[in-house]
């Protein structure tokens, strides 16, 4: 299955996959307005291929069912939460090391 991949001119890290180059007829107008002008990135054959951030099977299923696939950027890392987890992990390993 071939698909064309476009990046958003408005939303960084957001990509739109469509089955035919420059055919956005299946993409809702409201989505296209939020997406901005699609910037062509590449043409990809999804057969026997892995993608970096999304599951190829989900892309194929969405394109079959909806006529497009929208890839959103991963959520930003919560640095405060990561710090708390690391701190708690360090505390628990210190208490495990103390003699009873």
Automatic annotation (TrEMBL):
Residues 1-84 form the YcgL domain. It comes from the Bacteria. Residues 67-100 are annotated as: Disordered. Residues 79-91 have a biased composition (Basic and acidic residues). It holds the Pfam family YcgL. Signal peptide: none annotated. InterPro entries: YcgL-like_sf, YcgL_dom. This is YcgL domain-containing protein F9817_09790. It comes from Vibrio eleionomae.
């Amino acid at each position: 299955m071939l698909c064309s991949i476009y990046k958003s001119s408005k939303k960084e890290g957001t990509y739109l996959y469509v089955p035919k180059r420059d055919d956005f007829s299946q993409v809702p107008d409201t989505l296209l307005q939020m997406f901005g002008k699609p910037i062509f990135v590449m043409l990809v054959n999804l057969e026997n291929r892995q993608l970096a951030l999304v599951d190829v099977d989900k892309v194929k299923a969405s394109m079959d069912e909806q006529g497009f696939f929208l890839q959103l950027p991963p959520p930003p890392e919560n640095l405060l939460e990561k710090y708390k987890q690391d701190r708690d992990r360090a505390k628990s390993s210190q208490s495990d090391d103390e003699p009873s």
